[in-house]
């Protein structure tokens, strides 16, 4: 019996004439295509998208400042698009406040209403000592005023769900089209006591209640903490008492 012949093989990925012969006869597999063209194509596409979306998120004043840098027709077209978006938002902004909930009205005010818009429900702590709950109550008011096309509701947790653990408050329930799309139990899922309005705005974007390009979304340079002391580090005070009085 003849002994098997050992065919010398260069590195199988090497571009050599010998490897080409071996590939032709099926001794070694075809060399996989180089990823370089695909990477270059992806980079070109990324640059194209960046250029096309370079005006996303800019308000009308910022667009006016770009008159010397952008094509006039393109800028006017984009300005009209932005005006139309702002008009649509104003038309849809029918809420603009935090709605106190009562359990008997929950189905109508939340589940059924979610066919029209995103509904965000805040389950608050029954005590005045839950700092996370107090922080979120304040942020809730700011969000409701800023995003009037989204309905923000609020109810004391144990009045909504009997026996609901206080340790799980605050809890956020997000509804759309009759279903719960997401729930957030306490601020640990966000930034704890350092949670800001901008963090909640990112949640609005993640669930689809806002677009990334929405001109109302806070930018990093605009972020600020309106109550760094009174809510995050102080002992329970008039803020908590005010919260309790809202739901009596």
UniProtKB/TrEMBL annotation:
GO terms for biological process: protein folding. InterPro entries: Phosducin-like_chap/apop_reg, Phosducin_thioredoxin-like_dom, Thioredoxin-like_sf. Pfam families: Phosducin (PF02114). Signal peptide: none annotated. Residues 66-217 form the Phosducin domain. Residues 214-248 are annotated as: Disordered. GO terms for cellular component: cytoplasm. Belongs to the phosducin family. PANTHER family: VIRAL IAP-ASSOCIATED FACTOR HOMOLOG. This is Phosducin family protein. It comes from Microthyrium microscopicum. The lineage of its organism: Eukaryota, Fungi, Dikarya, Ascomycota, Pezizomycotina.
């Amino acid at each position: 019996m003849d002994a098997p012949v050992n065919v010398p093989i260069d590195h199988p990925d090497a571009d050599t004439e010998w490897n080409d012969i071996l590939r032709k006869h099926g001794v070694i597999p075809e060399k996989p295509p180089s990823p370089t063209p695909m990477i270059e194509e992806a980079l070109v596409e990324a640059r194209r998208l960046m250029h096309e979306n370079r005006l996303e998120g800019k308000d009308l004043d910022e667009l006016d400042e770009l008159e010397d840098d952008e094509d006039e027709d393109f800028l006017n077209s984009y300005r009209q698009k932005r005006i139309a978006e702002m008009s649509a938002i104003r038309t849809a902004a029918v809420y603009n406040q935090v709605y106190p909930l009562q359990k008997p009205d929950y189905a109508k005010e939340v589940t059924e209403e979610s066919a029209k818009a995103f509904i965000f429900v805040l389950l608050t702590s029954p005590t005045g000592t839950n700092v996370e709950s107090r922080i979120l109550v304040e942020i809730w008011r700011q969000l409701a005023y800023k995003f009037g096309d989204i309905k923000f509701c609020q109810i004391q947790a144990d009045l909504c769900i009997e026996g609901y653990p206080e340790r799980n408050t605050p809890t956020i329930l997000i509804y759309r089209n009759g279903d719960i799309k997401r729930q957030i139990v306490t601020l640990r899922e966000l930034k704890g006591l350092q949670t800001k309005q901008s963090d909640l705005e990112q949640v609005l974007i993640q669930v689809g209640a806002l677009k990334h390009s929405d001109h109302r979304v806070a930018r990093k340079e605009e972020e600020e903490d309106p109550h760094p002391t009174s809510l995050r580090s102080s002992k329970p005070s008039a803020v908590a008492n005010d919260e309790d009085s809202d739901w009596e």
